[in-house]
Amino acid sequence: MAHSVSLANLAFLPEAVAWPRYDHGRLRAGILHIGVGNFHRAHQAMYLDDLLNRGRDHDWAIIGAGVRQSDAAMRQALERQDWLTTVVELEPGANRARISGSMIDFVPVSDDGQAIVARLDDPAIRIVSLTVTEGGYCIDPATSAFNLDHPEIRYDAAHMDMPRGVFGVLLAALKRRRDRALAPFTIMSCDNILHNGRVTMEAVAGLADLVDRSLAAYVREAVAFPSSMVDRITPATTDRERTLLEERFGIADNWPVFCEPFRQWALEDHFPAGRPALEEVGVTFTPQVAAFELMKLRILNGGHAAIAYPAGLLGIHFVHEAMADPLVRGFLDKLETDEIIPQVPPVPGIDLADYYLLIANRFANPDVGDTIPRLAQDGSNRQPKFILPSTRDRLRSGADVAGLALESALWCRYCAGRCETGEAFLLDDPNAERLTPAALAAKDDPGAFLALRDIFGDIADSQLFRARFATALDSLWRDGTRATLQRYLSGDLA
Questions:
Q1: Taking the model in full, what pTM does it have?
Q2: Residue of 104, 145, 242, 376 with fewest CB within 10 Å of its CB?
Q3: DSSP 381-448
Q4: pLDDT digits (tens, 9 = 90+) for 298-353
Q5: Environment class of residue 41 by beta-carbon count within 10 Å: exposed (0-12), middle (13-18) or buried (19+)?
Q6: Taking the mean position of all CA atoms in its chain, how far away is CA 166?
Q7: Helix (H, G, I), strand (E, B) or coil at 267
Q8: What pLDDT digit, counting tens, does each position of 266-276 carry?
Q9: Distance, C-alpha 17 to centroid of its chain
Q10: Is the Cβ–Cβ distance between 318 and 371 less than 8 Å?
């Protein structure tokens, strides 16, 4: 019989399961985290749990929060188990389960954000951290600039008493703290965006520009926005994971997290209000976060995109199965070696070729069970951040883009919404309604997809890219994914 996760049941868990060695009831909150998903619970929350288990920083526990109604389901699941989470690290022959207790509460989810604003009135909350996805920052994909005309931003600018979006909530809370002469909290983005500290500052201050110029000046001058690079492969939770947890460890968890053993966190040390001693548990504090982040975005996240679309078109479901396919793996190896890695600047203490081999081995881990549909989702937000910057850099240097143009063509073909077996699938993308018609039109006119200027920007003006893209897309539609990948690997895709 499986034991349900709860504070009362910790002592009855199987011996193989690690659980908090600190008094959960004596923890005090110092961090409010917006966007409590699997990644946060496998990453930031685990680093904090490590620190708490060392007897350190028990006033830096986490309060969860969310601004979307979808966050309510997570809150409900965690509330039933006293905010505890089971994290399972998956490595062939060495799976490990552990209960994390670094979260002690979760703000009720509401439509007006007032519950979060009220909680942020507490001066004990000195850090607000974010995992709201790459698409949550209201960035123009083509220019990477903050979009002042985004509907969410416009709404919050006109309704600061009842903000709906994350940046409206943060600005309203900062205004209250300023008006009460309380020190501002530090805002720490943990999302996959280059210079994510600066991007977050531009979002909060940009919204403030629409509301109150003095408030905008306060945000720019008084609030800290450290940049970070975060990394841990963390697939979505399904009934598969819940069943495995019960069968292997005898634990019943409403929303467990399964992840790889590897994790990494590089962080800028800019926390005027204080921070936990995360360097004691493996976090790298460095002024060169951007170098780590660019490396990770281009090589790891770009690599995910590279295998997602050919594998999706071929009907492959799991990432490790894609890595076992010689053509998909061959495409990834050649694309990374020939076109992506050469555009990545040096990173202190890291050999980029070795880093890629580590990434490839992580992708191939069969126990993680990461899925191709997860990697393929939200391409309209991810392509401009993970793939197209490499394309733009190579074009500017006069280098060829055969592999990167093929990756864009594979994404276009995938956006048509049907794999090569003929099976239709739902395109999981906020812009699906315009991506799919453009992708279908591109079968006869490749320029129809490149006309999505908010995604491709000036890359669509390159004659070399347009020619490479058209050749690759024609081959995909005419001869299929396998034949096209083989031509690319043979150097015949021209």
A1: 0.91
A2: 145
A3: HHHHHHTHHHHHHHHHHT---HHHHHHHHHHHHHHTSB-TTS-B----STTHHHHHHHHHHTTT-THH
A4: 999 999 999 999 999 999 999 999 999 999 999 999 999 999 999 999 998 999 99
A5: buried
A6: 16
A7: strand
A8: 999 999 999 99
A9: 28
A10: yes
